[in-house]
TrEMBL record:
<keyword id="KW-0812">Transmembrane</keyword>
<dbReference type="InterPro" id="IPR006068">
    <property type="entry name" value="ATPase_P-typ_cation-transptr_C"/>
</dbReference>
<dbReference type="GO" id="GO:0046872">
    <property type="term" value="F:metal ion binding"/>
</dbReference>
<dbReference type="GO" id="GO:0005886">
    <property type="term" value="C:plasma membrane"/>
</dbReference>
<dbReference type="Pfam" id="PF00689">
    <property type="entry name" value="Cation_ATPase_C"/>
</dbReference>
<keyword id="KW-0479">Metal-binding</keyword>
<feature type="domain" description="Cation-transporting P-type ATPase C-terminal">
    <location>
        <begin position="33"/>
        <end position="208"/>
    </location>
</feature>
<dbReference type="InterPro" id="IPR023298">
    <property type="entry name" value="ATPase_P-typ_TM_dom_sf"/>
</dbReference>
<keyword id="KW-0472">Membrane</keyword>
<feature type="transmembrane region" description="Helical">
    <location>
        <begin position="155"/>
        <end position="175"/>
    </location>
</feature>
<feature type="transmembrane region" description="Helical">
    <location>
        <begin position="187"/>
        <end position="208"/>
    </location>
</feature>
<feature type="transmembrane region" description="Helical">
    <location>
        <begin position="114"/>
        <end position="134"/>
    </location>
</feature>
<feature type="transmembrane region" description="Helical">
    <location>
        <begin position="12"/>
        <end position="28"/>
    </location>
</feature>
<dbReference type="GO" id="GO:0005388">
    <property type="term" value="F:P-type calcium transporter activity"/>
</dbReference>
<keyword id="KW-0460">Magnesium</keyword>
<feature type="transmembrane region" description="Helical">
    <location>
        <begin position="81"/>
        <end position="102"/>
    </location>
</feature>
<protein>
    <submittedName>
        <fullName>Cation transporter/ATPase, N-terminus/E1-E2 ATPase/Cation transport ATPase (P-type)</fullName>
    </submittedName>
</protein>
Length: 301
């Protein structure tokens, strides 16, 4: 799951970076790119190193431990992930291009293409990337992206805090190195407000029903090495013997029950025979007594 979380962020930001560089250059008439080389290096540092520390070190949740294993033929990027990546990338790209086209007017940031305007474009892109890292913590239909943040992701909090702090310091201090200029407090607030919208987009993406691919649950041991095959054969023999023992045990129980039923049937038959014979003997006895009584009666006469 952690690898998928990391890929979810990587693919989103890479798609946006490539599209932004290409489309932004066309919008600028080929004169410049929306992001400078140093700014792209900072974005890549966030994606490659810091995001890996933040997302790949998260401890598994109870739902993850109870979930069935992923089929080996299942794609690494699921359809749910594609939905989240597509919607987040579309929002981030549309937002950044809108800032490049109208950001100077919305933020009153001087002339179009000026350094203050370029700083706002860069700042919005980085902040939306950081907020999207919260979306990438979830891979399925979970809506609470803050769930388990304190208990299972302490390093995530540290990485996000460092990235936000460094972004503020870089924009406000490293102007010549990062090719940016310091922003006013209202500009920072505006950048945060528009960038945090990616969280809402991630929430909406999980409301859209997605049908995941299904695979037949069969096991193919042909791809295993010899040691694994030997272990598998021993386990299979042990399971077969255990099943045979269980079947023999069940057969013994059923045989014992059959013997008891047969004995009970024989007992009932003997009892019925005994009672029937007793009635016949008693009938003969009564007939003999009656004959003797009649003989005595005729003798007296």
């Amino acid at each position: 799951d952690n690898i998928r979380k990391f890929l979810q962020l990587q693919l989103t930001v890479n798609y946006v970076s490539v599209a932004l560089t290409f489309i932004g250059s066309l919008m600028a008439g080929g004169r410049s790119s929306p992001l400078t080389t140093v700014q792209l290096l900072w974005v890549n540092l966030i994606m490659d190193t810091l995001a890996a520390l933040a997302l790949a070190t998260e401890e598994p949740s109870e739902e993850c431990l109870k979930r069935q294993p992923v089929h080996r033929k299942a794609p690494l990027v699921s359809r749910r992930m594609h939905m989240t990546i597509f919607m987040a990338a579309a929002y981030m790209l549309g937002l950044t291009l809108s800032m490049q086209a109208y950001g100077n007017v919305l933020f009153k940031a001087g002339p179009l293409g000026g350094i203050e305007h370029s700083t706002i474009v860069f700042n919005v892109f980085v902040l939306s990337t950081l907020f999207h890292m919260f979306n990438c913590r979830k891979l399925y239909e979970e809506f609470n992206v803050l769930e388990g943040l304190l208990s299972r992701s302490p390093l995530f909090i540290g990485v996000i805090t460092f990235c936000f702090a460094f972004q503020v310091v870089a924009v406000q201090t490293f102007g010549d190195f990062m090719k940016v200029t310091s922003l006013r407090s209202e500009e920072w607030l505006g950048c945060v407000i528009v960038a945090i919208g990616v969280l809402f987009v991630g929430f909406i993406s999980r409301l859209i029903p997605v049908c995941e691919s299904s695979f037949e649950k069969t096991f193919d041991g042909s791809m295993l090495d010899e040691d694994a095959k030997a272990v598998l054969a021993r386990v299979d023999n042990a399971v077969t013997k255990a099943q045979a023992t269980t079947e023999e045990y069940k057969e013994g129980i059923y045989l014992d029950k059959a013997r008891r039923l047969r004995a009970r049937a024989l007992w009932n038959e003997a009892r019925h025979h005994h009672l029937h014979v007793s009635r016949i003997v008693n009938a003969f006895r009564r007939t003999r007594v009656d004959r003797l009584e009649e003989g005595r009666h005729f003798g007296v006469m």
